[in-house]
Amino acid sequence: MTDGLTMDEALRALAALEAAWKDDNEALSALAAGGTQERPLPALVAAYGEHAMDTLMALAFGLRSSMSDEEIAELSDAVSANIGARMSSLLTQTLKAWGRLAAPDDLKVTKVIAHTVIDSMRAVTEDPSKTEVLPLLATFRSYALNGV
């Protein structure tokens, strides 16, 4: 997994996103009660949001694994010059700060962060108003299981 997240962390974050979307407090509580070695849930969901937005922004700007270093540098310049990409970065920084400061079992904060992450993910899809959340999360779950 990229961005410092393990596969298990990505899957736990995705489970939290799904639980928040379904308003399933029981599932969120179970996820928040994670082990002593696990990242607190609000911080994890925010960190996953950053990973998801970085992935979606790269795809939106046309990043491909076959690009040359020069093409990647040009793409990086284009992303840096784009106000939407800069705003996305500010949003994820804010969510991460809030997630780190929140109590590990604060389900209200976790839900707000999760819904913001979901809305951000939907915002960069082709038709945000028609993007179904659960299939979108399933796609990201598949990516996590395949190490993307």
Brief account:
With 148 residues, this protein is mainly α.
What are the main properties of this structure?
single chain; mainly alpha; 148 residues
Give the SSE string: HHHHHHH
- Uncertain spans, ≥5 residues at pLDDT below 50? none
Class per helix and strand makeup: mainly alpha
The number of helices is 7
Ends: how far apart? 6 Å
| Residue share in β-strands | under 5%
Q: How would you sum up the global shape?
A: globular
Q: Biggest β-sheet: count, sense, barrel? A: none
Q: How many beta-strand runs?
A: 0
The level of helicity is: over 70%
Overall mean pLDDT stands at: 89
Radius of gyration: 15 Å
Give a verbal description of the structure.
- The chain has 148 residues and is mostly helical.
- It has one domain (7-145).
- It has helices at 7-21, 25-32, 41-60, 69-81, 83-101, 107-123, 133-145.
Summarize the helices and strands and which ones pair or pack.
Layout lengths: L6 H15 L3 H8 L8 H20 L8 H13 L1 H19 L5 H17 L9 H13 L3
Helix pairs in contact: 1-2, 1-3, 1-6, 1-7, 3-5, 3-6, 5-6
